[in-house]
Amino acid sequence: MRTTRSSATSPPARSSGPSSRRCSRRASRSCPPSTWLRAISSPGPNGPRAATGSTPGSSRTGASASPSGTSSGTGVGAAAVMSQLRAVLADALETTADAEAALRQLERFAATVRGAHAATVVVAVLDPVAGVLDYVTRGHPAPVLVDAAGRGRSLLGSGGGPLGGELDGPAQRTELAEGDVVMFFSDGLVERRGRPYPEGIDRLTRISEGAVQGRIWPAGTASSVVERVCVDAVDILAREGHEDDATILAVSRRPAVAPLEIHAHATPSNVAEARARVRAWLADLRVDPTDQLALEMAVGEALDNAVEHGLAHDARGTIAVSLVLTTDGRVHVSVGDDGTWREPGPAATGRGRGLVVLGSVGEGLDIAADPGGTTVRLHRRVGRPVRDPVREAPTPDPTEEPPFSAQPLPGAPDTIVVAGPVDSRSADEFRRALAHASRGSTTDSTVDLSAVTHLTSIGVAALVETREKAERAGRRCRFVAPTGTAAAFVLDLVGLSRGEPESDH
């Protein structure tokens, strides 16, 4: 089981073993927000838990922890107080899976901060394996739960007053079955002048029921239940008018994501196929594009190194790739081969840049080499952006990758346009294309990498050689790679200057 969520602030995706999906969305006025929702991971006896909390604007997930809340004031001062409370609560939830203990720590801090009194908060801790949700409210709306069948209800609050008050109440507990959605929100989402507060809660509950059942927008317009809930709740309720921040965070338990396991002979074609499977696996998780690029680059770099060096003279060699999404929102990557590890040369030779890429895109880089082979391991915390399923245009299938090509731009022979993957399979053709474009040229040249889908250190080495050759001849060689593309991501990592496409290009 996993917990799932999507967020306007791109909270991390979670999985492996029971997990949860989370989604948060916010509509606010022009003043700094005095409400926050945040999801974070906290320790638990069965591994990380999700926590959510809200104080003047926060939430958290981990066994899963969520903090959410609202301050009594507005403007920059209230936002600054909220920022402090959020940081303290997040730190508390990093060290405990006990919602009441985290709240006590927040209370002690709030007593020392001017303006923190009367801030409201809800702190919740979800065990994604057992489905147990423990939460505490302090003057804040209690969560709303909609079950998998679309039946909604407001949960029981703790009965406590805002921070700094003398009233408190006991922690509450409920259980989330697979497919249930629980929502944490600011009162700005439901509070309206001239309307009783309970009617606002009921309005949110009815909208959430419709979102879970898929009755508000046509089927297929949103990729997950939590995204439908967040988008529908904010878009519909905000249109009715709101005078305070309107923020929501939704959490749902989902089946665990199956790990990706690949075993194949170490050939360039199998490397390309393995990369395609990695891309498809990440696309299914709908991780942030930057995280997807980073993990694809890491796997591709490690595989290219295995084929080019470790197994260059052994056609019988094999590669093994493993990707696992754990409940703390991290993708753990392992790439192994049964070849011989070779120490990289200086970075100027190109291959040393491979380790720069690997070390920059993930944490905990470890390379274990022995006579039986080499294994590269790293991990990266991934996020998921909030997407508007109605307003956004469909995106192309991220699993499709065009074939490699490198051709002069018609009418501009000093510009070469490159597309597709630049890896061990296409490296020789890429070098020939670069050499042909610069042969006999007396003018500056451009290598347009806008359509490159994958760039490993083999390709980076060829680009460095091309630029250095041009500089020795007194010419400039410009690399074009728009921000957000695969080539831009890698060039920035290794420190090679690049430019954006010119308007008339």
**Shape estimate:** elongated
Could you give the distance between the termini? 49 Å
Radius of gyration: 26 Å
Structural class: alpha+beta
The profile of the biggest β sheet is: 7 strands, mixed
Condensed summary:
Residues 1-76, 383-413 are annotated as: Disordered. Residues 416-505 form the STAS domain. The chain is built from ten helices and 22 strands.
Overview of the structural elements:
Keywords: Hydrolase. This is SpoIIE family protein phosphatase. Helices cover 30% and strands 28% of the residues. It folds into three domains: 2-254, Phosphatase 2c, domain 1, CATH 3.60.40.10; 260-381, Histidine kinase-like ATPase, C-terminal domain (Heat Shock Protein 90), CATH 3.30.565; 405-494, Transcription Regulator spoIIAA, CATH 3.30.750. Strands 3, 4, 5, 6, 7, 8 and 11 form a seven-stranded mixed β-sheet that branches. Helix 3 (197-213) packs across helix 4 and helix 5 runs antiparallel to helix 6 (289-310). With 505 residues, the chain is an alpha+beta fold. Mean pLDDT is 78; it is low at 4-19, 28-35 and 45-66. The chain contains ten helices and 22 strands.
